[in-house]
Design a protein that fits this description.
The protein has about 210 residues and is mainly beta. It folds into 2 domains: about 1-40; about 40-210, Sandwich (Jelly Rolls), CATH 2.60.120. It has 1 helix and 17 strands. The chain has one helix at about 1-25; strands at about 55-60, 60-65, 75, 80, 85-90, 95-100, 105, 110-120, 120-135, 140-145, 150-155, 155-165, 170-175, 175-185, 190-195, 200-205, 210. The protein has a 17-stranded mixed beta sheet that branches. It is globular and about 45 Å long.
Length: about 210
């Protein structure tokens, strides 16, 4: 949860700076409300400093949703992936994405992942369903959000499975260690560290986690 808290802290700080700047301009008699405001923000393209992933392997049905599209499309060839995009695999399908030669995201069949943030300081994924393998060498921090659970993977290899029917998330650590963060039903923050060979089951309805 610390990663989420830091993210929103910087988000609010940035919003405050922009709001204050606009207010000062409006109080300035030289401010021209009819002047053209330019920005470097691009909906079609991710921030220049963000990393890009590359689909290294895929088979079966792989669906891609770009930053600007309203409807996803079926991929027929390998392509790059940028911040704000989403991948979904169909039945008997799979896809492997390599990011900066330091992180890998491998989707099994019927899985979905959104590349929420791909800044060098922290990669953030959001997994809605299915089973996905995450590998990280430690060059870039990697966090995965699944329901009410946040998994921090650094120099580790973990498998995360989301079961929408039982509303549970299972995290199995294959190598290294990962950190789990969540809030329980009493809104208390919980942090659990898992080592290789450990399995963590999070019940999203009860907001409870169990180490097996």
């Amino acid at each position: 949860m610390k990663s989420i808290a830091i993210f929103f802290l910087f988000l609010l700080a940035g919003f405050g700076i922009v709001t204050g700047h606009v207010y000062i301009q409006q109080q300035n008699p030289l401010f021209n409300p009819n002047s053209t405001i330019t920005t470097k923000f691009s909906l079609a393209n991710a921030p220049g400093e963000s990393l890009k992933g590359k689909i290294a392997t895929m088979s079966g049905t792989v669906i891609w949703l770009s930053r600007v599209a309203k409807e996803p499309v079926k991929l027929t060839s390998l392509r790059t992936i940028q911040q704000g995009e989403e991948l979904t695999t169909g039945k008997n399908s799979k896809a492997g994405i390599l990011i900066n030669n330091s992180a890998a995201v491998i989707l099994s069949a019927n899985s979905d992942v959104s590349f929420v943030q791909m800044l060098p300081i922290n990669l953030v994924m959001s997994q809605d369903k299915g089973t996905i393998i995450y590998q990280d060498t430690g060059q870039n921090a990697l966090s995965v959000q699944t329901s009410g659970l946040l998994t921090a993977i650094n120099r580790a290899w973990a498998v995360i499975s989301v079961n929408s029917k039982t509303e549970t998330v299972t995290v199995t650590v294959q190598k290294g260690s990962v950190t789990e963060g969540y809030e329980n039903s009493q809104n208390n923050s919980n942090v659990v560290t898992l080592n290789a060979g450990s399995k963590f089951v999070f019940d999203d309805t009860k907001q409870e986690g169990t180490v097996e």
